[in-house]
């Protein structure tokens, strides 16, 4: 079976997914594209050839009987109607993070999915498909080195545009660590604190960064996350998991080191598409395969909801000057057990 995919959102992330589906992955084709900018949708449709159609709304694309599954790469604030629309149409959907920008919208999505009686939603938390993260998770799950005590994370970018806000440090950037830590530890995050530090002179006037987030899980694991988005030297993701009898950390960048008379160095990645290219490919290929087999893969709507609930608590802490805030979670539906 060739899965016929419709793309909603033809910006940079959407085009990156088109490129991987057309040129690197197997088992799928792009049959439709939608964007509020119809010209952008038409450009994507033209680029993939065939009889691909262009639409001005996600609703039109979802209603197309030729579309088997939907890939959503629009802004998080507009995800909810299209995700629910895909659920009600009985179509599998891969939606880029966040699932939605409020816990209430995430709950509405879960309610629609539960009503339909079938897991159709995968949230694009691609780090779950990263080779190095999976190797660390295997150590954690294996228990050879004892339970996890603490985790140290760093999320660094070379720069961000003027449109990037202080809120986005949490709901656009740190949300990746939030999901990864839930997945890796197998526990919900129950408390969070957002600490401000000395402002970088490279940050634009309205951006207060870096920040450090401190999370606590159900069993008391302490997790910290440095979010530093104007560090100039490159895109760098670091994670060290400290267990009772060992510590495991991500290798640097996925590249090689060269040692010569000039020193010890490696190539720095410059953005998330560079660093997580393999993880993105594995995520989307896994989704395509699952759709072809009529089954669910990857993170669920509950995972999207839980991550957004932690984001809400972290934003509240940020607004309150760094007070510790408890994460408010509804009872997990049996549907997502």
From TrEMBL:
Domain GFO/IDH/MocA-like oxidoreductase residue range list: 133-247
MF annotations from Gene Ontology: nucleotide binding
Pfam families according to UniProt: GFO_IDH_MocA, GFO_IDH_MocA_C3
Ranges where the Gfo/Idh/MocA-like oxidoreductase N-terminal domain occurs: 3-125
Stated name of the protein: Gfo/Idh/MocA family oxidoreductase
Species annotation: Flaviflexus ciconiae
């Amino acid at each position: 079976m060739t899965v016929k995919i419709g793309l909603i959102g033809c910006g940079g992330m959407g085009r990156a997914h088109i490129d991987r589906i057309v040129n690197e992955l197997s088992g799928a084709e792009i049959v439709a594209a939608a964007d509020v900018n119809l010209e952008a949708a038409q450009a994507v449709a033209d680029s993939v050839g065939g009889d691909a159609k262009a639409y001005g709304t996600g609703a039109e694309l979802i209603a197309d009987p030729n579309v088997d599954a939907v890939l959503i790469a629009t802004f998080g604030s507009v995800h909810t109607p299209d995700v629910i629309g895909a659920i009600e149409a009985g179509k599998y959907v891969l939606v880029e993070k966040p699932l939605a920008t409020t816990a209430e919208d995430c709950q509405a999505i879960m309610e629609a999915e539960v009503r339909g009686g079938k897991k159709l939603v995968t949230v694009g938390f691609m780090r779950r498909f990263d080779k190095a993260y999976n190797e660390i998770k295997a150590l954690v799950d294996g228990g050879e080195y004892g339970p996890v005590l603490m985790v140290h994370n760093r999320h660094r970018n070379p720069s961000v545009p003027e449109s990037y806000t202080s809120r986005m440090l949490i709901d656009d950037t740190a949300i990746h660590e939030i999901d990864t830590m839930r997945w890796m530890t197998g526990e919900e995050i129950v408390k969070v604190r957002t600490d401000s530090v000395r402002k970088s002179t490279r940050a634009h006037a309205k951006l207060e960064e870096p920040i450090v987030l401190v999370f606590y899980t159900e069993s008391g694991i302490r997790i910290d996350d440095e979010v530093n988005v104007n560090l100039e030297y490159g895109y760098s993701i670091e994670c060290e998991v400290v267990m009772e009898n060992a510590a495991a950390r991500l290798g640097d960048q996925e590249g090689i080191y060269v040692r010569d008379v000039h020193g010890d160095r490696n190539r720095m990645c410059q953005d998330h598409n560079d660093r997580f290219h393999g993880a993105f490919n594995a995520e989307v290929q896994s989704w395509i395969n699952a759709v072809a087999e009529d089954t669910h893969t990857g993170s669920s709507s509950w995972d999207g909801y839980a991550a957004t609930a932690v984001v809400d608590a972290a934003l509240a802490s940020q607004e309150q000057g760094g007070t510790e805030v408890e994460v408010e979670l509804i009872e997990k539906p049996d549907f997502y057990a």
